[in-house]
Design brief:
Blueprint (H helix, E strand, L loop, with lengths): L1 H10 L10 H15 L15 H9 L6 E5 L5 H8 L3 E6 L2 H10 L6 E4 L13 E7 L9 H11 L1 E12 L16 H5 L7 E12 L2 E11 L3
Parallel strand pairs: 1-2, 1-4, 2-3, 4-5
Antiparallel strand pairs: 5-7, 6-7
Bound molecules: S-adenosylmethionine.
Length: 224
Amino acid sequence: MARRDAARQRIDQLTGALGGAAKDRLAWFHTVYREAAGDPAAIPWADLAPKQVLMEWLADNPGKGRRAIDIACGLGDNAEALSAAGYRTTAFDLAEEAIDWAKTRFPESRVDYRAADLFDLPADWTAAFDLVHECYTVQALDGDMRNRAADAIAALVAPGGKLVFINRSREEGSEAKGPPWPVVPSEWRRFADLGLEPVSERFYTIERPDRTIPHVMAVFQRPA
Ligand SMILES: C[S@@+](CC[C@H](N)C(=O)[O-])C[C@H]1O[C@@H](n2cnc3c(N)ncnc32)[C@H](O)[C@@H]1O
């Protein structure tokens, strides 16, 4: 916990830590991984375990060899869960430092880990995935990157495929003192304007000693 707090204080001082220009924010992620130098306590979002709500969803939605992609996979725990649930899984992150780290953590992995930028993805990934999983990326971006990220995420969903979107949530119109900047309903419901049909919305909280953190898991499907 002490290492985590010290790291948090250090990285909060870096350019891009609090948002601002897109190039600074994206460079900040690289710096966080690089400066962590292999210590996961220095990565604020590294739980070193897959998200519980994702595990519950996967229990009812096994992959059976279908293709999945994990958006901005960080250290790889959610991607490994997708793979273990039977999805042929691709996982990418902007930070090659994170990708190398994930490969080191999971040397026997069947996940295809790639360094890639959500805003400049390979053309052959368009509409190529039966499951697109996005966890905590949109909330980590500010300004116009949020809608651009949603556009890029939606474009990956194959006909008949699903999007599972997991982020912190807040009420429409409420203030966010990010990062992270929790998502508002109009942001995730915008996937319906991008050709996806709403399947479900699950609201839940994560309890911390000093606060309660609202979350949403929203599921969408592209018509076949
Ligand atoms: C808050 S972390 C979440 C990581 C992981 N999805 C999780 O649930 O733990 C946000 C991640 O987004 C990545 N990221 C930020 N901008 C990106 C971009 N344009 N393309 C790909 N990854 C990006 C960062 O490097 C970081 O690993």
